[in-house]
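Summary of Year 1 activities. Much of the first year was spent building the evaluation harness for sequence design. The harness presents a backbone, in tokenized form, and records the residue chosen at every position. We chose the following record to illustrate the format because it has been used consistently in internal testing since the harness was completed.
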């Protein structure tokens, strides 16, 4: 169905956003052109600002987040242009370190977090995450 197809494309974009973010976080590269491949709008701004803050504070992130996204809704049903995604992401193995010393930054405990995301079809037909929100550890 159109909703199932849109859901698959939205999930691919969502997971791509996290892969691109994890790659940029290894060096805190807030200017990486890869960040815009799967994210735009508020989502891209949040990612870039977060990576800039890490760069400014001398932090890098090692490891990868784990995601388990599901489609919550695809609208309109007959030809979706918006897909809402829910996830129980786990950042236990995605840890910040001080770039200069290699020591852990102790930025709080990692774990499973409830994540919501909005993924929209762009005018060129691609799907991009336009916004997302991450809750505290233990919310899923």
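For this record, the design step produced the sequence shown next.
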């Amino acid at each position: 169905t159109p909703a199932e197809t849109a859901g698959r494309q939205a999930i691919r974009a969502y997971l791509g956003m996290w892969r691109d973010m994890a790659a940029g976080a290894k060096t805190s590269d807030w200017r990486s052109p890869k960040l815009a491949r799967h994210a735009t709008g508020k989502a891209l701004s949040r990612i870039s600002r977060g990576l800039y803050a890490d760069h400014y504070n001398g932090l890098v992130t090692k490891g990868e987040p784990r995601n388990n996204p599901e489609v919550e809704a695809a609208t309109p049903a007959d030809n979706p242009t918006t897909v809402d995604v829910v996830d129980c992401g786990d950042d236990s193995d995605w840890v910040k370190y001080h770039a200069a010393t290699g020591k852990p930054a102790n930025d709080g405990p990692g774990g499973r977090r409830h994540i919501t995301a909005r993924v929209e079809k762009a005018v060129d037909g691609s799907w991009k995450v336009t916004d997302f929100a991450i809750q505290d550890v233990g919310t899923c």
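The two ends are 29 Å apart (CA to CA). Quantitative recovery figures across the full test set are reported in Table 2.
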